[in-house]
């Protein structure tokens, strides 16, 4: 592996974000994760960040840059939430808070990351979306809208900053074994398992592998892409 790069993973204290952070660290990169409370996972630099707050995002980047000794070259915008309910019952707050966290949160991080990347004349932005962003999902109008928004965000960044050595891509996981899916009702899990060609949920490490690939030198000409890690669930979407 060449020079270690400075990586920031939002929501890297657990689940998919933690697997991604550990995968970058395992290949020798310098990694900071954001968390909202408590202690960071062992062996990783932790910075406090609330992605719905621009000042908190700016402070987290400053702290990560200080700890890692330079600008962030790889941003993984992973922090996300669900607040599922049917359209008819969804409150303004349930819609707005999910979009504010998943989509506007990623925008705030990308905007702050772009400063350092433009100066470096290189950078990788990877947005963790979801198969439901393009496939749709009943009870998830807020979540699916926020996740498809990440595609427009990444593609516009690609057009704006592609000439400066910066790529922006989306990873669209299907069903991954984490706290988020542990909350799903058993019937829903069974129905999804039946619909997934691979016949199983994925591990967080399988999402991490696609993410580290998009940040690798070999992926330097891939930008504005949506890479599914969904066992075939979303094919064609
Ligand atoms: P988890 O619920 O396990 O973790 C979510 C992470 O996001 C936590 O670190 C959480 O921090 C952080 N987070 C949530 N809200 C905020 C906020 N406002 N500011 C800062 N950090 C925040 O989720 P997963 O690991 O399952 O999911 C990670 C990403 O992958 C999400 O974007 C999710 O939508 C996406 N995804 C997940 C799938 C799955 O099957 N699990 C499938 C497809 C996509 P804290 O610990 O403080 O709450």
Structural description of this entry:
With 237 residues, this protein is α/β, with parallel strands linked by helices. The chain has one domain (6-226): Rossmann fold (3-Layer(aba) Sandwich), CATH 3.40.50. The protein is built from eight helices and seven strands. A seven-stranded parallel sheet has the order 3-2-1-4-5-6-7, sandwiched between helices. Helix 2 packs parallel to helix 3 (92-120). The relative contact order is 0.15. The model has no long low-confidence stretch (mean pLDDT 96). NADPH dihydro-nicotinamide-adenine-dinucleotide phosphate is lined by residues 10-11, 13-17, 34-37, 49-52, 78-81, 101, 128, 130, 173, 175-176, 178-181. Keywords: Oxidoreductase. Its EC number is 1.1.1.100.
Per the principal axes of the C-alpha atoms, what is the gross shape?
globular
Distance between the termini: 34 Å
Sketch the topology as an H/E string, one letter per element.
Answer: EHEEHEHEHHEHHHE
Distinct compounds present: NADPH dihydro-nicotinamide-adenine-dinucleotide phosphate
Low-pLDDT parts are none
Strand content: 15-25%
Query: CATH topology, which one?
Result: Rossmann fold
Give the CATH architecture. Answer: 3-Layer(aba) Sandwich
Main β sheet profile: 7 strands, parallel
Question: Overall mean pLDDT score?
Answer: 96
Count of individual domains: 1
Figure out the total of helices: 8
Measured on Cα atoms, how large is the radius of gyration? Answer: 17 Å
According to CATH, what is the class? Alpha Beta
State the share of residues found in helices, binned by percent. Answer: 40-55%
């Amino acid at each position: 592996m060449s020079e270690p790069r400075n990586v920031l993973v939002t929501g890297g204290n657990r689940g998919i974000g933690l697997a991604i952070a550990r995968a970058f660290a395992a290949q020798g990169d310098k990694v900071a994760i954001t968390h909202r409370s408590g202690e960071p996972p062992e062996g990783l630099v932790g910075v406090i960040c609330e992605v719905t707050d621009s000042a908190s995002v700016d402070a987290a980047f400053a702290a990560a840059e200080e700890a890692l000794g330079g600008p962030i070259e790889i941003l993984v915008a992973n922090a996300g939430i669900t607040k599922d309910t049917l359209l008819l019952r969804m409150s303004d707050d349930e819609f707005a808070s999910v979009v504010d966290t998943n989509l506007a949160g990623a925008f705030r991080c990308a905007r702050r990351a772009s400063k350092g990347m433009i100066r470096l004349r290189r950078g990788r932005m990877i947005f963790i979306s979801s198969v439901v962003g393009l496939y749709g999902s009943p009870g998830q109008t807020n979540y699916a809208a926020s996740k498809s928004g990440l595609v427009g965000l990444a593609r516009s960044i690609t057009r704006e900053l592609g000439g400066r050595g910066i790529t922006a891509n989306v990873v669209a996981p299907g069903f991954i074994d984490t706290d988020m899916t542990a909350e799903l009702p058993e019937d829903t899990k069974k129905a999804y398992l039946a619909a997934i060609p691979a016949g199983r949920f994925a591990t967080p490490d399988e999402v991490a592998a696609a993410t580290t690939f998009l940040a690798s030198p070999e992926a330097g000409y891939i930008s504005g892409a949506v890479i599914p890690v969904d066992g075939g669930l979303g094919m064609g979407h």
